[in-house]
Amino acid sequence: MNERAGGESQRRPxxxxxxxxxxxxxxxxxxxxxxxxxxWAALFVTSLWFLxxxxxxxxxxxxxxxxxxxxxTPDLVLFALAVWVMNVVDAYLTTSRRNRRASxxxxxxxxxxELDSDLEFCHWCTTPIDDPDPGER
Length: 137
Known about the structure:
Strand content: under 5%
Order of helices and strands: HHHHH
Radius of gyration: 23 Å
Helix content: 40-55%
Low-confidence stretches: 1-7, 132-137
């Protein structure tokens, strides 16, 4: 994995998508997008809650009961599948976006926090930045 100046490693979007494929919200947790992870997991569980005949509180029905229920209404399966696919795509895009944003930020080599490009020192730890412009040499 690529290391940023602050020591935080960038995440791979394909791995985030693979985690999201296994468990909805896991790809976002891998990318450290905690709120999105919780929201996707909650959306998936909620959709299963409302779409399962009798709800999940009625206990886990047998496979035969579920097969009969979903064969009558395939829209329920398509909805849960659509939520799952959107979760995988969002995990990939979220991880890509976070990596792109992290690579454009300039970080302090001492404390790792974001720098203000107008200053010649870190306004967090006051360490001078020893990176002169190539044109000034």
